[in-house]
Amino acid sequence: MRSVALPELRQHHGAQTALPWWTALDGVVYDVTGFAKRHPGGERVLRDVCGRDGTAAMVAVHPRDMAARVLSPAEVVGRLDATGITPEDVAKDPTARAAPEREEARPPLEQMLNAFDFEAVARETLSAEAWGYYSSGADDEISLRENHTAFQRVWLKPRVMVNVRAVDTTCEVLPGVSGRSALPLYISATAMGKLAHPDGEQAIVRAAHAANVVYMLPTLSSCTLEEMLAVRAPGQAVFSQLYVNADRERTREYVQRLERAGVRALFVTVDAPQLGRREKDMRNNFTSAKSDVQRGEDVRRDEGVTRAISSFIDPGLCWDDLGWLMGLSRMPLFLKGVQCAEDAVLAFRRGCRGVVLSNHGGRQLDASRSAIECLAEVMPALRAEPGYSRDRFHVYVDGGVRRGADVFKAVAMGATAVGVGRPVLYALAGYGQPGIERLVRVLRDELEMTMRLMGTPRLADASDAHVITRDLATHVTPTPRDFLAETTYEPLQTQTQRAGRKRGDVRGRL
Ligand SMILES: Cc1cc2nc3c(=O)[nH]c(=O)nc-3n(C[C@H](O)[C@H](O)[C@H](O)COP(=O)(O)O)c2cc1C
Description:
Elements (H helix, E strand, L loop, with lengths): L2 E2 L1 H6 L10 E4 L2 E4 L1 H6 L13 E2 L1 H7 L4 H5 L5 E5 L18 H6 L10 H11 L2 H8 L6 H10 L3 E2 L14 E2 L7 E2 L3 E3 L12 H12 L2 E4 L7 H6 L7 E5 L5 H13 L4 E5 L9 H5 L20 H7 L11 H6 L5 E6 L2 H9 L4 E4 L13 H13 L10 E5 L5 H9 L4 E4 L1 H33 L12 E2 L14 H4 L8 H4 L4 H4 L4
Parallel strand pairs: 1-5, 2-4, 9-10, 9-16, 10-11, 11-12, 12-13, 13-14, 14-15, 15-16
Antiparallel strand pairs: 2-3, 3-5, 6-17, 7-8
Helix pairs in contact: 6-18, 9-18, 15-16, 17-18
């Protein structure tokens, strides 16, 4: 392979645009003029690496062998001659923080006592872009906060004098399909795992196995589907989340790949015909977002990671499509993002195997209710349906689950299991796979303690009789101040504030 130096490359445009359509990956220079049109995130996403060494930026969110797999030998220009390369010639890793800073912010893993501890560490260790993308909620983040505080409006009514020497938190999250889990909890689908950790979703698959919980693979993963599936342990159950592509043929192919690979259940996301405005994410102007998956159209990259990766989602998806979706595979089908009794009942009547009550972690419609509040409305409506039974139709909830007691409350109110999203990303960001394993262990231990103190040694013992939910729908009610969660909101930093000027000095006059 011939050697090429920067001056020659600067002449090498390869397109009738001002942008130099070449990049160097692992020392090899590629002409990406053609690839730009094929890139799943659209050609604009490639701009940051064009005309520069893109290795660090690429491996931050993609598998290392990506270039060799998606670029052909005909697109190789030569081997990069590193003479004269300056830091400006190297595209930055969008996820990186200086290593010493990361280490300093990371207490030993044993000091992580609860889900919020992981969040506090993640905030310090994640890049601004990754933190913005993961932690943001839609608009005023009302639903984001509500998801967590709603659990605090459910009070517990323990029974005493019950033999609780042995407490069993294990269950089948999807009876007859998923195998037994350590507790009624699964890891929900969250996009772009590599923003948290270089191993991305692969680390989550491994951790799910080690912690004995099921992982719902995201459509918008930063590892390829094959990479996620390849690290499954023998017999490990995984679910899959699905965004339906406007190009229905792509969805059909994708679902069939999932079924061939032995994925146990399909969760179709139905709360995202348009992605919510997540302003913390948008403010970052994140231009380097990339994900594998189904190909999308060109994207507006000034709107944060969210818009950059989601342009292919079909806003036309409706109840009439359910028959087609069910016909694509034999996997049990669930709707993820149902938010009222009427839709849960429709899903039941139309033959779904269940629903996830969810407002997408408060990232979609702001002021939508928490899943736990919806659960209180949904269960009586389902119980009134002829033919309904808890074995036949499963109700899951996600959003704001941060304590074992939250898991208990949901199960007592009728949920089969709960999903967790952000806590897993935060644990991954700070500590990789062992972090997720510890997070699950902590939640399991908390659940076990709650069950013991509640006088419910088996999950089946927990029922409506153990929870007081009458305040749940009353949104104005005194709740304790939530110091842990409140510290995660980040307001806009004005130029003045960024410049570090004092309040009395200038701000009062703005
Ligand atoms: C960073 C992030 C990315 C997400 N990506 C997806 C996604 O691609 N598809 C989806 O259906 N839900 C997605 N979700 C929603 C989660 O599956 C889940 O509903 C939510 O995170 C639960 O709330 P929690 O984060 O409070 O646990 C995402 C959530 C987060 C925080």
